[in-house]
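Render this sequence as a predicted structure.
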Amino acid sequence: MKKYYILAITLCAMFLLIACANPNSEVVGEYDTSKLGGDFAKSSNEAYAIGSNKDKMPVFKDTDKAFKQALIDYEEGFKAIQKEFNLKPVSKKNWEAYKTYGWQLSADNDEEIRRQGREITQFFDIYENSFKQLSVLHIKSINKFNS
């Protein structure tokens, strides 16, 4: 049993080290936002400033600012997604469900709410680019631990 605790602690420590040094979150260049969907991408709001990571994928220059601004700009859309799909309030730990369901809001919602839902999905398409490598490494760690 002690062996499993040591393994779990080691895996957690490795995950934290990787999270702190995630190269996908580092902006290394500019990105042509004219190719992107979503009003936020064409916005002059500095919170939504987009650059390019090492893989030439679009990433927010400051993911925290972008996340906070999206919560403000798409507040009604987040509420509608939460209600329709019975989700917990959006957070940095559960945003993936909002990405999945944002564009799926039903016609019971008015057009502005459905538009916000689509914007939320597009926002998280870019937001996730800062964290993709972590997800892959995390899955590999879990698979090794369960083997």
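Summary. The longest helix spans residues 2-20. The chain has two domains: 1-22+132-147, 24-130.
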